[in-house]
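[job 0417] fold request received: SDR family oxidoreductase
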Amino acid sequence: MQEARTVLVTGGAGGIGRAVAAAFAAAGDTVVIADRDAQRVRETAEALGVAGQVLDITDEPSIAQGLDAVEKELGPIGVLVNNAGLLTVHGALLDLSGADLETVLHTNVVGTFLMTQHVARRMVGHGAAGVIVNVSSIGGRQPTPGMGGYESSKAAVDALTRWAAIELAEHGIRVNAVAPGPVLTEMLAVGLPEGSPQRRAWEDRIPLRRLASVDDVAAAAVFLAGPGAGHITGTSLPVDGGQLLT
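[job 0417] inference complete; emitting structure tokens
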């Protein structure tokens, strides 16, 4: 049986992050959810029976203070799941403002980079092998009109995954990504109700004919962080029902 680890999940107060946190907790790990919204962190942590930490992935002092607090209470972080990101800013190539693109890139790319860097430095300092799992998207490989800013950020996350994997391998740190297609979060379910033409349009792009559940993504993250993936690093695993095949 694998020894319990301290697992930090960013953006863990809802959606995919909440499911990831619940899955690691069910596997016996000590889980900390990190998010900017203190109330949501508190409520979600209480609901899941895990620890919570207020943290802004784009702010280095916030990252340092948050990681200090986690390590003081729970010891070194063994697994980092970089789930926090911005999905809601979209626009066509001819319409999206430069400021909006910068916002997406700053959160999804710079934020993921900063969390990876800060946690990896601590892993190396402790002399302990660790695992980092990024949440990417198949959009980084398969474009959808109007979503190019977000998809460009996720292509960068895939590149960052490979960069970190090759440089951190000598320290025994594995770095991989989970790349979902559309995921049926509570928010998406409201915008794409079952049976709606919009929902069917998305499902028709997927050979398995259904959107991923948050639990599908969580299971992939747990696998990549576990001993069964002990010789896997630098990969971005699609969880897309075969959408990239089309």
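[job 0417] notes: The longest strand covers residues 173-180. The longest helix spans residues 98-126.
[job 0417] exit 0
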